[in-house]
Amino acid sequence: MLKIEQVGKTFNAGTINEKVAVKGLDLTINDGDFITVIGGNGAGKSTMLNLIAGVYIPDEGSIRLDDTDITRMPEYRRAALLGRVFQDPMMGTAGDMGIEENLAMAYRRGRRRGLGWGITNAEREFYRERLKTLDLGLEDRLTSKVRLLSGGQRQALTLLMATLQKPRLLLLDEHTAALDPKTAHKVLGLTQQIVSEHNLTTLMVTHNMKDAIHYGNRLIMMHEGRVIYDISGEEKKKLDVQDLLEKFEQASGGEFANDRMLLA
Fold first, then answer.
1. pLDDT digit string (tens) for 42-66?
2. Which phi-psi region, left, alpha or beta, contains residue 225 (left: φ > 0; alpha: ψ -120 to 50)?
3. Pick from 57, 58, 61, 2: which is nearest to 27 by CA?
């Protein structure tokens, strides 16, 4: 469904601040895959998601989505194909707009705009039903300003908005990292529910190794801008955190230096 071939991206090339973010990156994502992505700081995880989303254009290599070359396609054109949830709960919503207005923006993504009424009663009922699935009571607060919501409520709403129009690929960039453990667990449960219900092809970057093992059907580990480990199916289910640490040492020739991941 998505094929990344020999992709490279270097920032500030030729300067003292040169940073090779990804190099020789290869990854094939199958339709329906739910892939968790782990790696140390600077491994290239977020850069990979930004290259897929069109935030960055690769220096070399190609990215194909459904046999269409999107390597240099502008970000706004990819927006109709992709759903994305960021680490910061404030980034995916418009705080000064109501809940139903945010949902309406997401629902109209990729559609032509007309001069009809902004939100119909039927549409409002649809939003109410979808909000009920979050089990957060937001279906009774359709006109509330989003800035009044908690971080967890806002991130759950962002997740719903990203999947309201079924995306070809859902990108989750450490979308629970800024939440407290209890709220993070709730949002991850909602993520699993939505991905399973709509059979969404998903890439989820996480620093939590237990979450990386528990969620999804496939796990990849990145190091120095490339994939060094790719496991799926029954093999993945048998993994534990110690297995991942040992695999990293074998593949990278060094020890995991990321304290956040060790603590997780």
1. 889 999 999 999 999 999 999 999 9
2. left
3. 2
| DSSP letter string, 192-239 | HHHHHHHT--EEEE-S-HHHHHHSSSEEEEEETTEEEEEEEHHHHHT-
Which residues, other chains included, contact 196 with Cβ-Cβ below 8 Å and sequence gap of 6+? none
Domain ranges of the chain: 2-81+167-263
Q: pTM of the predicted model, to two decimals?
A: 0.89
Q: What confidence tens digit (pLDDT) does each residue in 191-244 have? A: 999 999 889 999 999 988 889 999 999 999 998 899 998 999 888 888 888 888
Using the Cα atoms of residue 105, residue 109, residue 114 and residue 116 in order, give the sign of their dihedral: negative
CB-side exposure of 69: number of CA atoms within 13 Å? 7
> Pairing state of beta strands 202-205 and 169-173?
parallel
CB neighbourhood size of 60 (10 A): 15
Count other C-beta atoms under 10 Å from residue 153's C-beta.
Answer: 22
3-state secondary structure of 148: helix
Taken in order 68, 71, 77, 80, is the CA torsion positive or negative?
positive
Assign residue 67 a region: left if phi > 0, alpha if psi is -120 to 50, beta otherwise?
left
| Superfamily the domain 2-81+167-263 falls into | P-loop containing nucleotide triphosphate hydrolases (3.40.50.300)
Which letter does DSSP use for residue 34 in this model?
A: E
Q: What is the CA radius of gyration of the chain?
A: 19
